[in-house]
Amino acid sequence: MTTATQTATDKAEYIREYHRNWRKANPEKVAAYRLCYKDSSSAYIRKWKADNPERVREHSRKHAELHPESRPARQKKWMQANPEKSRARCQARKARKANADGKHYTTAENIIARWAVYDNKCWMCGAKALCTDHVKPLSKGGAHYPANLRPSCTSCNCKKASKWPFPTTIKAWAVGQ
Ligand SMILES: [Zn+2]
Question: Best exposed site among 44, 93, 94, 142 by fewest CB in 10 Å?
Answer without folding.
Answer: 93
